């Protein structure tokens, strides 16, 4: 009788120990509160997606292109179906103006002068001998606005865009040349088809 009681006590102890072990295993494999949402569903990951790129221009780049983009908008609105293909901030006799060339409908070209802040058309006339640069626009997938943004992101410093033009390399590659900081600044030359920077520097133009 005493032996039977001892065996019962032994079995009871083993059962209790087993339950404790199983409870510990269950607790260790349960997901943390931080990795689940209410109801037990997995929480959304906040880790960056591999290969993801930032497409929004930085604040610094936007500041460097703001006035030039205003000039482009003003010039294109002044010409039917207008597309800017050349612009330069130039100072003559103490007066600073944007000189802008715009391709219009049917291969026409208009030359404009805009205020320094790019908001006002000071003069506009049609050029009777359009530049051959107009034809280069047809093979460019990069718009002048894209070119300005890419150049501003690529260049160091805080110099603002002062010129941009579509051009052709000796090997036939159509390019956008964007200058920041005027004659003493930097020029970024990029492929007009894919935005690849070909070269950049003070003498890159």
From TrEMBL:
The keyword Signal applies. Residues 143-199 form the PepSY domain. Pfam families: PepSY. Residues 1-27 form the signal peptide. The keyword DNA-binding does not apply. InterPro entries: PepSY. Keywords: Signal. Residues 27-63 are annotated as: Disordered. Residues 27-38, 53-63 have a biased composition (Polar residues). This is PepSY domain-containing protein.
